[in-house]
Known about the structure:
6-stranded mixed beta sheet, 6-stranded mixed β-barrel, 27 strands, alpha/beta
Amino acid sequence: MTNTATTPATQQVRGACPHDCPDTCALVTTVESGVAIRVAGNPDHRHTDGALCTKVSRYAERTYHPERLLTPLKRSGPKGSGQFEPVGWDEALDDIATRLQAIAARDPQAILPYSYAGTMGQVQGEAMAARFFHRLGASLLDRTICASAGGEALVQTLGGKVGMKVEHFAQAKLILIWGSNSIGSNLHFWRLAQQAKRDGARVVCIDPRRTETADKCHDHVALRPGTDAALALALMHQLITHDWLDHDYIAQHTLGWDALRERALQWPPERAAEVCGIPVQQIVDLAQAYGTTRPAAIRLNYGMQRVRGGGNAVRAIACLPALVGAWREAAGGLLLSASGHFPVNRAALQRPDLLAGRRARTLNMSTIGDDLLRDASPEFGPQVAAVIVYNSNPVAVAPESGKVVQGFEREDLFTVVLEHFQTDTADLADYILPATTQLEHWDIHTSYGHTDVLLNRPAIAPVGQARTNTDIFRALARRMGFDDACFADDDLTLCRTAFGDAVNFQQLLDQGFATLDLPDAPFAHGGFPTASGRCEFFSARLAAQGQDGVPDHLPNFETPGSSAAFPLAMISPPARNFLNSSFVNVTSLRDIEGEPLLEIHADDATPRGIVSGQMVRVFNQRGEYRCKASVSRRARPGVVNGLGIWWRKLGPAGTNVNQVTSQRLTDMGGGPVFYDCLVEVAALPEGA
Length: 688
Ligand code: SF4
């Protein structure tokens, strides 16, 4: 396999999937005469095992998509009209730099970067961009939109985003897949679970939705959204009352057992069954399985933490393995995220020292709707005057999108969007700058689902006039007069900087990936990366913040049954062929999905006169969106599943599911509560 893109012969170039997915696959791109003709999984990378998901196997189609942005565009019509005209790079960058300089002269905090995981790469993500915004003194962005509640909960309990090595799930005898549709969003883990199943493991899915994954598990616990902590506490109750505990592990390696014990004993299965809306016996059976099967492994995912009590729920679940001593074995324990295992040198990449002592304010990306509409005030600081969006599509993905749109429509807001396509957010920009895809640039990747570092080499030259994110920020820095040496670093230097000597870079160049040297059972003898070195059932840091130091069930903000007007709980998991809002414009994938869908149980559909295939209105006090109903056993009674995340302009009536989600925040981590949302659903007359 070759690794360069400079000769006209057929080549295979190693890379990494950049998308927000725990699998972080190793790619092999076949290039003929400078054109990428095929993107496949690298068979030499054990986690990828030669297979990609349907979405990324279409990556060449996405790269050469006829709607790919090929030149810088400047707005030529009214804001939001979607009318743009091509301009040269110099003209665009000169004007952007001049406008940013004028705003910065008043207060650089009026400039807001807005980015997330459009690429997970350390270089095209927050490297040169972060340097630029730190040097500028712009507002800082709290990047909360996906995983911050669960991430913070792991930090407070285990000491970091750490856990089992994914490969060992194949040897587990009991696997709880908790809050994850692994077939759709963690495919390579699912292959390991299948292997375990073939070897006799029991596999249980815990999810309000009857997903494709739930279909293939031995048991499905279809609890109400936002009740996972109640279930976890009831499991603990049973572990205690039946003495399925590892007393030695608890004594040696945990902190706060007495307080947790007292809390768990308040949660008999009958109480939890009432809260979760599931049979008592299901809790009793699950507790027995968890208390008596070794090795027992939990694959937790982020869906269940998108509710008010999401952090507490993750904390409660993360306590379970220590109670039964599951960590003693390599195939026991829990995995939510492995990202804390990677020794990334973020200070060197992102250079927060360029703030030079300035204390820039921090805005939460999950409340962008409200924040764009806020006036200047002593508490808030300056009104947001400019937003630079890269690796994100906030108009489609941020909650309460009616307000997000209203904010981006402000005539006095200067918006620049770095993108591959003219997304909903790009429609509202003043400038759209064409960015390279993963096939066109260098990058280096951690993973949150396995423990390998991957290097991404450019396989083809940039398409059209596309430029890398790093190059765009370098060019802006030059125009802004930032002459610090770090703005001259090229992308390969940034790749080397990401890990310094902690990872063998030559191995990455030669092989494309390198495995971190970690123990197979990282907490078999305790050694958690908490301050106490123990699994912290009680968190002194949370208690000091005024929170309950011991995990508990916090009811949703919008509890089912609390509103006569909006009686249905709604969750909005991703449609199988989309990845957040990426891939929605890839025709072959959108054709598979058809159109935005709301899954609704027959018990809820029939009284509303709703039949499958009918257009419906989904609404609450925040707004409404329209989609097609699917009367389906994938929805449990009382809960509807609004599959996302469609681009607004590609769905009916120009809205999507986030029109009804709220900007309230989780108990810890300041995360959004997408799945803490009550709605009503009404049938629309034919043709409406
Ligand atoms: S989206 Fe996930 S499964 Fe698909 S190729 Fe990327 S890392 Fe692999």
